[in-house]
Amino acid sequence: MSTVQNTEYLASPRGSRDAAEAASRGRLRLGDPIFRVVATACGLAVAAAMFGLTAVLIYNSWPAIAGLKTEVLTTVAWSPSSGQYGALAALAGTALSTVVAMVIAVPLALVIALLLVELVHPSIGRIIGMAVEMLAAIPSIIFGMVGLFVVVPFMQETIVPWLVESPLGSVPGIKPGPTFQGGGLSIFTAGIVLAFMVLPYITAVARDVLRMVPQVTKEAGYGMGSTTWEVLHKISLRYANSGIVGAVFIGLGRALGETMAVAFIVGSVYTDLPRSLLDPGTTIASLIANTFNEATDQIQIAALIELGLILFLISMVFQVIAQLWLRRVQRKTGGRA
Amino acid sequence: MNGRRSQATERGAGGAPLGTVAQSGRKAPALRHRSVARRKAVDLIVKVLAWIGAWFGIAVMAFVVWEVVVRGISAISWSFFTQSTPQDVTSTSGGLANAIVGTLVITLVAAAIGIPTGFFGGIYLAEFGRNGRVATAVRMIANVVMGVPSIIVGVFAFAIMVKPVSHYSGFAGSIALAFIMLPVMARTTEDILNLVPNELRESGLAMGAPRWKVTLGVVCKAARGGLITGATLAIVRVAGETAPLLFTALSSPYWMSGLFGSGGFFGGPVANLTKTIYDLAGTPYPAWQSLAWGGALVIIVAVLGMNLLVRLLFQRGKEW
Amino acid sequence: MNKSASPRRLIRAATTALALVVMALAVVACGGSSGGGSQSSADTIVGAGASFPYPLYSKWGEEYAGTGGAKLNYQSIGSGGGISAVKAGTVDFGASDAPLEEQELNDSGLVQFPLCVGGVVPVVNVEGVADGQLKLTADLLARIYNGEIISWNDPAVAAVNAGVTLPDAKINVVHRSDSSGTTWIFTNYLAAAAPGVWKAGADKEVPWPTGVGGKGNEGVAASVQQLSGSIGYVEYAYAKQAAMTSVQMQNKDGAFVAASLEAFEAAAAEADWQTSLPSMYLVLVDQPGATTWPIAGASFILMAKEQQDAARGKASLDFFDWAYTNGAATATSLDYVAIPQTVYDLVQSDVWPDITSAGTALWK
User: Fold this and answer.
1) A16 and A82 in one domain?
2) Same-domain status, A250 and A134
3) Which residues of chain B are within 8 Å of residue A330 when distances are taken between CB atoms?
């Protein structure tokens, strides 16, 4: 097999010398096949890891899937000590906190990206861009701590009382529900902290995507007399549409699975659906984090792993959608997203 | 953005300039004037909002870092780096030394497993598989795996490493972290290697070098900066993770004692920085909370510092 | 061809990395604090469970290690976690404030014995209220935790708190989010002392009508600290160490008592351990006495009857022996009631003989 590979360079005048060298260095003849095998194995390892993860999760949650059937997805309360394994409260909390996070983060990310691409001098833009990317590296536990010690008291003492008093306070969804406990530890607070956790990611992708809008098109717009805003929303955003959506999905996926930023501050109420954003609740990730180590019996552990499987599937769906969106962008603009 | 000029040259359907009274039933010049002014106003408002919004977002991020620095700096002292996690709630002494060392060991072992595997996986994607079906599938799977919540990785590592042997271990934590590192390193390696021009490969092969020598000796050498950056960033990223360690390495107030046995790396829970911070932050004692902030500061300095360092040292011309 | 080829450099790099890892492990193995040289598997005993006694156990652990004994790695994960961990065999002993009944002990092959007694104290974070100032009755406490009384200046609350200015603020309720023996003690008290009002039952986890959850005693204390207008329940050591505002409770005799070691001791004095054998299951809430603290409870240790590792089982028993005989002073300093010698004698004679490894009893 090695002779077939070595014919690549046998054509050159030095070929025979190299062939001789090759023959004398026994190892060399195995080098390429070994290399190829190792590389392929490692490449497949990545895929294998994914399948392994899925298989292990399914296998270990099987007792719960078989035993509890649909209870996990149809019952509200999670109370293992009374035999209840309903995850609706957790699912609702996950969905709500993620929506709050997206509502705050996406517009902010877009304006920051706009700022970086259009409104500031490129060198400043580079610095801020670098700062944004470094901020994306801040671990979530940091956000959790700042959330608990700074945001929670601030919400409890300042923002939420004001909100409840204001006209907004009677809007269903903001009006405090029966489980309201002051709003410090709540879905809303968790959503806010999540928003700033995912902000750098969405910003980075949005900025890259906005940068890919061809100058020519934008200049055509300016030449016609459009204002910056008009160029942005009639040209750039339309062009970068898919990319922005992809960025949003990436942020969504991250917000869904975020644990440490949320575990401290969402309120840990596993037994009731939140009736308002200001109510405390829980998310799937923080429910697992808070209760896993003390799971009292096999069915509880299996049920928690089943929750993990559900979270995994949800985030995978969003990831896949994000991947497909971004590949559309790639095809449209000819670059790598 | 010259409203006037466009006003002068726009023509209506009939050929006459719009805005002139000659067109029957057309808008009067006054309205068009307002419309331009309105567009400018809207533009200005949007710009102002954008500036405010953007600076608000950036300010909040800076605020996060600031809070950690302010609250954590008071905890940093010699004892912080030499003493182990406090257990006695009545004392105010104690440090995070054992947790820092534990994180270093767990992360390094994870890197020893994840970086080479990811590196060769990236080589596969860039050099062998390229656009083939298998490689495309692997690439997409790698992207998806990168998005898996880290707590799920922790659950996975628990199921395969902790549950079968009925004890926690630092090694289980390393496996969880390596799992996270793997696709990150593979994709980063692939991206970096793809930047290396093909001419380099061709000239290496033309000189008679075998494939592996060309790839490792020439291409990787050329991409050395990017590869080191990628590896370092991957390591730094997992070093800050907490969720994967919650059910694997757990935590410990003591120094690791050896490899096996209940205090050892493979045998029992191992102290680590992130879980310890998580535990300490959830206590009501100001002294312990302060230690947690100190730990947070160490993490931020390490993460941001390494990020800055590798970018400054190795990002030659790569756009940020 | 370039002979200082990268394969060699790669191998060198890999070897260096490996060497670094090995060195790091070696340094940590040989370094570290007090005499960690012994490689025997009994140099660390791993326990997990209740956060109720955590301040005491961790201090005992530090002192015991200082005398040359094994190191104690105690994970405060809640009584529920301790029970499941010891059942699963992942720890040397579990700790729970909610004792198991005899049937469950037999089914799971466990023994249980009390190691300390402590008090659960309601703590509040209310503007203008100082430590020990606020008074509550069982009825009021139950109604607060039911979500029926929602404001601090509610007339019912004000009625027993003459002279204290209560603000017009919402009561934010904090309870445990994890499976907790402290909750077991607390809810047992509410069920015993306010049976008409408290309907959610008495267990390690109950369907709380209202409130946010904190993880562990630490989490509840931390949450109460962070949230103004909140009330929670914690073991007394946490309230004291974190300098929190605790509440006076009305006991069975009708007197309002402040939490203190003496009040806990009065409650513990009523305990009849002899009759509780062999499971030693005992509830100490709502005991009679003029100075008794009404929300007291014992914290138990659970161990497997059949120990997998004889050395670690023996090491654990040695630690408990030390705690029983030498730990009283430390317990008192943290406001826990030490188990008296007479009870320890009972434990040694009736419970520990059941702990065996490969047939032979571990404790002589």
Assistant:
1) no
2) yes
3) none
Q: Name residues of chain C where pLDDT drops below 70.
A: 1-42
Instruction: Please state the domain extents for chain B.
Output: 78-319
The minimum CA-CA distance between C202 and chain B, rounded to whole Å, is 26
Interface membership of C179 toward A (CB under 8 Å):
yes
> Do B209 and B295 touch, CB atoms closer than 8 A?
no
Residue with tokens 């934008």: A218
State chain A's maximal CA–CA distance in angstroms.
89
Over the stretch B254-308, which tens digit does the pLDDT of each residue have?
787 778 776 778 887 888 999 999 988 888 888 889 999 999 999 999 988 888 8
> What pLDDT does A79 receive?
82
Backbone angles phi, psi at C128, to 5 degrees: 90, 0
**Number of other residues whose CB lies within 10 A of the CB of residue B38:** 10
With CA atoms as reference, the chain C residue closest to B281 would be: C222
What pLDDT digit, counting tens, does each position of B165-216 carry?
877 889 999 999 999 999 999 998 998 898 888 888 888 888 888 888 888 8
**pLDDT score at A48:** 92
Q: Which amino acid is at C273?
A: W
Degrees to nearest 5, angle at CA B152 with B148 and B154: 120
pLDDT at position C270: 80
Residue with tokens 């999540």: A194
The answer on A153 and A125 residing in a single domain is yes
Specify the pLDDT at position C14.
61
User: Nearest CA of chain A to the CA of B316: how many Å?
Assistant: 14
**Mean per-residue pLDDT, B41-54:** 85
Residues of B in contact with C7 (CB under 8 A): 212-213, 216-217
**Residues A212, A155 share a domain:** yes
Residue A100 pLDDT > 90: yes
Q: How does strand C256-257 pair with strand C296-304?
A: unpaired
C-alpha angle with apex A128: A124 to A129, nearest 5 degrees? 110
Query: Which has the closest alpha carbon to C76: C225, C218, C243?
Result: C218
- Residues A271, A318, single domain; the answer is yes
Domain count across chain A: 2
Class of domain B78-319: mainly alpha
8 Å CB contact of B89 and C46: no
Per DSSP, chain C holds a count of helices (H) and strands (E) of 14, 15
Domain with A82 in it: 72-333
Contact C226 A179 (CB under 8 A): no
Average pLDDT, chain C: 86
CB contact under 8 A, B246 and A148: no
Does an H or E element contain C71, and which? strand C71-76
By Cβ distance, the residue of A152, A156, A294 closest to C179 is: A294
Asked whether residue A221 carries a pLDDT value surpassing 80, the answer given is yes
Which residues on C lie below 8 Å from B285 (Cβ)? 241-242
Four-residue CA torsion sign, A300, A303, A305, A308 = negative
Return the CA Rg of chain C. 24
pLDDT bucket at A96, cuts 50 / 70 / 90? very high
Do A53 and A117 lie in one domain? The reply is no
Considering A59-68, B12-21, C190-199, the range whose residues carry the highest mean pLDDT is: C190-199
Q: Which of A77, A182, A271 sits opposite C227 (nearest CB)?
A: A182
Regarding whether A128 and A215 lie in a shared domain, the answer is yes
pTM over 0.90? The answer is no
